[in-house]
Structures are given as structure tokens and as C-alpha cells.
Structure prediction request, 338 residues.
Amino acid sequence: MKAVVVQEPGNAMLVDIPEPSEATGNTLLQIRMIGLCGTDLNTFRGKNPLVTFPRVLGHEVAATILSTSTGAQNSLQNGTAVTLAPYTSCGQCASCLRGRPNACRSNQTLGVQRDGALTERIAIPPEKLYDAKLSFKELCLVEPLTVGFHAAKRGRVTKHDTVAVFGCGGVGLGAISAAAYHGARVIAIDMDDAKLEIARKAGATEFVHSGREDLHLRLSKITDGRGPDCIIEAIGLTQTFRASVEEVAFTGRVVYIGYAKEPVAYETSLFVQKELDILGSRNALPEDFRDVIRMLEERRFPVDDMISAIVPIEEAPEMLRQWSDNPAAFTKIMVQVS
Prediction:
């Protein structure tokens, strides 16, 4: 069966791989569509330290159920459209024992530490599946949006908060839509007018173009000099890591989703003077998947505005090269598999 494999950095190919084995308890899926995200781009570029090569990409999944093997506890019928949680959990580490398997010490994400779903068929444990009354495009957006929803939950966002989000890519838009879904006032921060417009449709009501506006002055004006109650960083730049601490309100919350690509130098006195809660956010939990599915079923997210291109699987390697050459030109790329 066909699969898109990154053989080495900068070299993606459409190849034939073996059919998945139907291990006891697994559900066999026909992959319909796959969304590509920044993790896939970093893998293609050789900048993801968690990846070894060759690697099949893909963890944002829309599929239909083909069959369920003996022993699977699954009430879903063949032909049901599903998405999935692409993470594993060991059940034994500190995170798992605290009921937070999203941060499992031994996690292996599809397309990262293990081969992904950008192929024709895969076998998945049924407890990882989520059915929904959504299109394949919408199903592909569930997982990336859950990452932002989980970040908003980590930041304890409520309707009483003003929340600023650095970055209006896929994950940032998830955080924006989550904060808006919880009734918060949302400030979107980006350097791309088109992405800021999508953020408006996702629920942001205030906007900062950080390439041509003074970030501190704009946030101060919007918040009457207090700063946002919560700042969610979804870019991964040293300057936005620092700005999050500098701009957040006293006793505010800072949530980091992105990885900074180099060490970050902080004025640590702000941690104490402001009595800040500084939080990391990783992956998502089952309730985040259910919340995102509910939001999408209510048609409260600009799905079509977010999608930059849909290509057949045969064109995916070339699309990865184009994306790598001009990353700012794309928000979300989807690959039609079947």
C-alpha cells in the first residue's frame, strides 16, 4: 500500500509499505485524509530531534472503520467516520499515574517517534478513536485544535479573562477558539494579516500585528494597562517566550505550547514580583477531543478559511518541498488519501 515516507531530511517519497497487521484488539482503518502540521514540516527539514529516519508522516487523521479484530472493545460500526488520538501512554510513569497520559514520559506520537498515518490503512487501538458528525476536513482539524484547547484548560481560562495568544497557526487558532469558546476576551498576535483575519473568525476580538505595531503599547491599551490575564505562546521563539512573561498581568498565567529553538534568557524577578503561574502544555486529553468535536459540530470554527491546500497523496512529497521553501504561504495543508 502507498505511504509518504521521509527517507532523510529534505527527501520525501511515495513508496509501497506492507499492510498493517491486525493485532488482537485493534481496529483497522481506511485513511481518507491527513492534515500536515509544523511537526511534519520540522521532520521533513530534519529539525525534529525526536524523529529517526525513514519515517512515515501523519498524525492528524480522518478515516473510516474497515474492521475490528477479535477482542476489541468497540461499539463503532464498519464505515463509521472517525479521528484519533495519535499518542501512546505507558500507564506507569508519574504523568500517567496522575491521570495526565498526554504528558507520558514514554509517549510515542504517530509520525514522530513511530510511523504515522499518511498511508492507506493503519491499525489502531479502539480506545483512541472518536466518531463525530463531521466532514473529513473537519476530522483532520480535531487533533491540532485539541492542542490549543488543552493549553486554554492549562491556563484555567474563563469568561472573566482577557487572553492573548502568540501565533495564529493551527495550534494558536485552537487556543484562540478555545478561549473564545469559554467566553474570554481574546487578543490575537501575529505578523500576517491573513492569519489575523482567520483568528477573527475563530473568535478573537482584538488584534496586534507585531511586525508593525508596538506590542507593549497595544497590549497595555487593550487591557487598560494591566496586561492580559493569560498569555498562550504558540510559536516557539525566544522573543515571544520572554514577551509572555513581560506582558502578562500580575498574578497572571503563562502557558507555553511551542518549543523555543534555543535557550531563553529571562528576567526572573518578574516570576516572583508578578507571582506568575508558568505552565507547559503538551498534546491533549480525551475531554479536549470531545470539546473540539462539539465546537466543530456547532460550526463555530472557520474550517475552510484555515485550509491552504488539499492535494492527492501522490503530490504530497512535492507539497512538502514547496511548504519548506515558503512556510509563510500555508496555514494548513491536507492530503487526500482515498
